[in-house]
Amino acid sequence: MMDTILNLGINETVVETLSAKSGNPRWAWDCYRRFIQMYSDVVMGVGKEYFEVLIARMKEKRGVKLDTELTAADLQELSTEFKAEYKAKLGVDFPSDPTEQLVGAVMAVFRSWNNDRAIAYRRMNDIPGDWGTAVNIMEMVFGNMGDDCGTGVAFSRDPATGENKLYGEFLMNAQGEDVVAGIRTPQTIDQLRETNPGAYEQFAQVAHNLEKHYKDLQDMEFTIEHGKLFMLQCRNGKRSAFAALKIAVDMVEEGLCTKGEALLKIEPNQLNSLLHPQFDPAALRDAVPVANGLAASPGAACGGVFFTSEAARDNAKNGPVLLVRNETTTEDIEGMAASQGILTATGGRTSHAAVVARGMGTCCVSGCAAIRINEAERYLTVNGQRVNEGEFMSIDGSTGNVYVGRIPTVDATVSGDFATIMQWADEIRSLKVRTNADTPKDAAKAVELGAEGIGLTRTEHMFFDLDRIPVMRRMILSDTEEQRREALAKLLPMQQGDFEGIYKAMEGRSVTIRLLDPPLHEFLPTTEEDMELLAKDMGKSLEEIKDRCRALHETNPMMGHRGCRLPVTYPEIAEMQATAIIKAALAVRKECGYDIVPEIMIPLVCEVKELAYVKNIVKTVADKLIAESGDNMKYMVGTMIEIPRAALMADKIAEEAEFFSFGTNDLTQMTFGFSRDDAGKFLPSYYSKNIFEQDPFEKLDQSGVGQLVEMAARKGRATRSDIHLGICGEHGGEPSSVEFCHKVGLDYVSCSPFRVPIARLAAAQAQVRFPR
Hints:
alpha/beta
């Protein structure tokens, strides 16, 4: 703020005195008109654009192009016009009392803490709102007193490439805002060596000393007044992800910092840009977004738009496609897998579309309220533009921007410094990093990115393939246990094959497989055409199928007949899944020689007797199959802690569970009483009114949900000292949440494959900050 509030305590009397003492009336009047403009804009909210119009009019009247070509008399006249504009806009005279000016400037700084931009910035950078801000008041120095004066902004290294070379710009006979305003073309910092060699050498030495002191890239502002260098401010500089890695590695090699200190200089989320395709920068400069949604899964994508999963799947063979839906469901999994990107009109960053897209490493923009989809006539409209099915759109999952038309993408590049940083992170961290993976492809990608195991395999996604969903529906709508077992027998070899592929991809690493979790109605047909096919297949009437589907409908399905409640009602479902898991593990152990120890996870438990009942089903199947095989394979049975009551009863639940995995998506949902798919509609009001600072579905609520996690971990270990503890919600790849998991003593975090490097770095940073 202090480099924009210029020359406090100046009025026309002071200007006359400065003019006489300096012999430079032009400089004095230039200071005054700048002060009026900046004070009006920053302190009183009168936009500086009003004053730019007056400046442009004055230059046109005088026949000049640059501000520096205006005379002292011109600037004096401008000052009078500025004050008249101020009074016209605010109805009061421009203040001439220095005390009033100072108090106004100080209060403007304090007010800025709660403007919309500041609130958004704090949310993005995890800065608490109750910190507040401060004001520094200092003597003014001037870069606009003549040709031996100047001002500039520079970095101690190149913030784009990380090259160890001064990078920046300066202007002679100018003030700070001139460098960034674009009114004059600045010179590069190395040209200062020719313009003022003494100031350049002094600045280069100061930059070196500051970097050595702070052990980080420095962003510096300076002024030269009559040949003398003044340093105005320095701070750790923002940098690209590529530069962040190079600077960290170089500083260790230069002896400026340790490996641990180097890791702390890297923002973990920056790694996203190194792992996903991005838009071509040259093409992006000319592109104008038509709408903006939530940046739900990073990367960039361009393709023809299709409005159903089937259309996206069928057209993917002809070229890149984008799946555009109001919101996705589990039935859309094939279309999502076939698409370069996913765009939804509703839903938040933890909606189905967002979670699945991140797991796949697919670009996603969710909650883009500006789009209107007409699925029946196969087109969408966005802010007055119509886009027909098959026509191209482009989306940026890192910014949330949506474009009509094609924007070419470029593949992400990973430098050698990336591998070095990851190696250092793995040497330092104590928290393990697993992945959430449902397919061998996802598992292999996660291993490539450094995953040490799988913390969550969701078995439900496997049932939506075209050859399986009819069998699954037949099982759900069966009238008798015998009919269900007949359908499950057909699903068994399919599920076993899935697990064998995952076990092979993981090459003996730990794999946690969750039993069926969602409510059964999610698998049922929704169109009359699909219901007719199912009725024919099952030998039932269409009305019978409709009646059965209606009977399975639930008012609140997320808290309904799902998770462990399914095998309590239908034990044969857990029997089939346990059979598939154990048979797959035995087969891969025999074929590949991997020392596989299956981890079978029972979801949504709230009562120890509930867990004991389902665990007994699993153990009966597993023990029989292992005994028959002659193998001595071990296995583990554990549960997800995702209901507040389970956290409260963790000591009792640990009597049966050999591991806990905290499902923080549902645990957050049930603790807050928020629907994660609908919270995005009202949470912005909570941010603007300072009720919430963060979306609890994006960053773990450490004081509330976190307290449940910490308590359950403590209680679980009190009962079973060797219990394994991990987290498998979306928070497992969010840096501040990873740090929390480290601090409360969890053994691992699990996240989507493309978040694994981020979690590895965050875990190492947590170890540096809080050694354990």
